[in-house]
């Protein structure tokens, strides 16, 4: 098969011909039809995130068709369209047993210590394979494998969004855009989107959100006007910078909830402990998504008939995977999601 590899100590990806992986007991061999390209892949290709193998195939937003199943596999069959969970959770630790697979204490990470989806085939344990919604194409299914799943988990499992609430989305890239789309299924929710990219703000406006550019407008004044001076019920931060996290916290009403999805090394200062305690505000971290959230998401999108096809900015062949990663590295607000298609029907 053909596959794109990262090498230790070398930047960029190299496409090579290698043996197709075997399908052992309890495993599923999948023909990869689509794999999303995200910022993690850029960091891996630049060497900012170390890999633990001499060479490894990146790509963790994977959809495809079951080609073969190993002994004991019962939940999927050859020919099924599937989505792969974005990491291989162990299924045995306290987090996995509690249904929080995203917090597995000993996961295998595609592109770091196990081969991922920038390849024609991938073999994975049955427990990380989920049947895909029939109404979505393979590229949309790849989005579900992470970017839609992460947004859903943040909004519904962690943020517990409710009808008629006012919700602030901070950062309207791929995750933020998908979050706004998912909120369309919640009755009478009012969405406010904050970003500094005009293209991102235009996307948010097109989806029915109030758009705010904090470099040109006063978010507190605008949100105060929209909420009668109270603030938002729920804020979801997808950027991962101290400034945007603090801003989102300030824009909550008393008793509001801030969900942190964006990651980074900065340290936000929320002010005196007494002020935090008396505000009644909650700060809730959200990382990845659980299998329960994934199953709920698939039903939710099917019931609400939400489309994510316009979240895909560009499609690349497997041979173009190195170019896809390079293009994402230099893109800004214009790129929602790139997709690599290793095989096509």
Portion of residues within helices:
25-40%
- C-alpha Rg, in Å? 20 Å
Q: CATH class of the largest domain, anyone?
A: Alpha Beta
Residue runs with pLDDT of under 50 for 5 or more positions: none
**Overall form:** globular
How many domains comprise the coordinates? Answer: 2
Largest sheet: 7 strands, mixed
Bin the strand percentage: 15-25%
Distance between the termini: 16 Å
CATH topology of the largest domain: Quinone Oxidoreductase, Chain A, domain 1
Give the ordered list of helices and strands: EEEHEEEHEEHEHEHEHEHEHEHEHE
Number of E strands: 16
Give the structural class: alpha/beta
Second CATH tier, the architecture of the largest domain: Alpha-Beta Complex
CATH-assigned homologous superfamily of the largest domain: Medium-chain alcohol dehydrogenases, catalytic domain
Mean pLDDT: 93
Note the total helix count.
Answer: 10
Describe this structure as you would to a colleague.
This protein is an alpha/beta fold. The protein has two domains: 2-149 and 289-341, Medium-chain alcohol dehydrogenases, catalytic domain (Quinone Oxidoreductase, Chain A, domain 1), CATH 3.90.180.10; 160-285, Rossmann fold (3-Layer(aba) Sandwich). 29% of the residues lie in helices and 24% in strands. The strands form three sheets. Strands 3, 5, 6, 7, 8, 15 and 16 form a seven-stranded mixed β-sheet that branches. A six-stranded parallel β-sheet has the order 11-10-9-12-13-14, with helices on both faces. The protein has a three-stranded antiparallel β-sheet with strand order 2-1-4, with no helix packed on it. α1 crosses α10 (321-330), α3 packs across α4 (174-183) and α3 crosses α9. It is globular. The two termini are 16 Å apart.
């Amino acid at each position: 098969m053909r596959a794109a590899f990262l090498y230790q100590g070398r930047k960029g990806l190299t496409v090579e011909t290698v043996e197709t992986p075997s399908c052992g007991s309890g495993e599923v061999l999948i023909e990869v039809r689509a794999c999303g390209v995200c910022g993690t892949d850029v960091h891996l290709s630049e060497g900012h995130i170390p890999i633990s193998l001499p060479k490894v195939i990146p790509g963790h937003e994977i959809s495809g068709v079951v080609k073969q199943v190993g002994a004991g596999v019962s939940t999927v069959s050859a020919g099924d369209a599937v989505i792969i969970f974005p990491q291989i959770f162990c299924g045995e630790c306290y987090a996995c047993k509690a249904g929080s697979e995203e917090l597995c204490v000993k996961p295998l990470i595609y592109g770091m210590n196990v081969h991922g989806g920038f390849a024609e085939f991938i073999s994975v344990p049955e427990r990380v394979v989920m049947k895909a919604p029939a109404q979505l194409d393979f590229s949309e299914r790849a989005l579900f494998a992470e970017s839609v799943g992460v947004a859903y988990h943040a909004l519904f499992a962690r943020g517990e969004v409710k009808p008629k609430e006012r919700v602030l989305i901070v950062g309207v890239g791929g995750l933020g855009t998908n979050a706004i789309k998912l909120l369309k299924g919640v009755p009478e929710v009012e969405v406010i989107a904050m970003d500094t990219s005009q293209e991102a703000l235009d996307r948010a406006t097109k989806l029915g959100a109030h758009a705010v550019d904090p470099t040109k407008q006063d978010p507190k004044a605008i949100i105060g006007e929209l909420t009668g001076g109270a603030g938002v019920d729920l804020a979801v931060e997808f950027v991962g910078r101290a400034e945007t996290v603090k801003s989102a916290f300030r824009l909550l009403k008393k008793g509001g909830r801030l969900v942190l999805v964006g990651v980074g090394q900065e340290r936000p200062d929320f002010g005196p402990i007494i002020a935090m305690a008396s505000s009644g505000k909650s700060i809730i971290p959200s990382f990845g998504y659980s299998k329960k959230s994934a199953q709920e998401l698939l039903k939710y999108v099917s019931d609400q008939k939400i489309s994510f096809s316009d979240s895909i900015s560009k499609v690349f062949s497997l041979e173009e995977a190195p170019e896809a990663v390079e293009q994402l590295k230099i893109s800004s607000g214009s790129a929602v999601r790139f997709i690599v298609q290793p095989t096509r029907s």
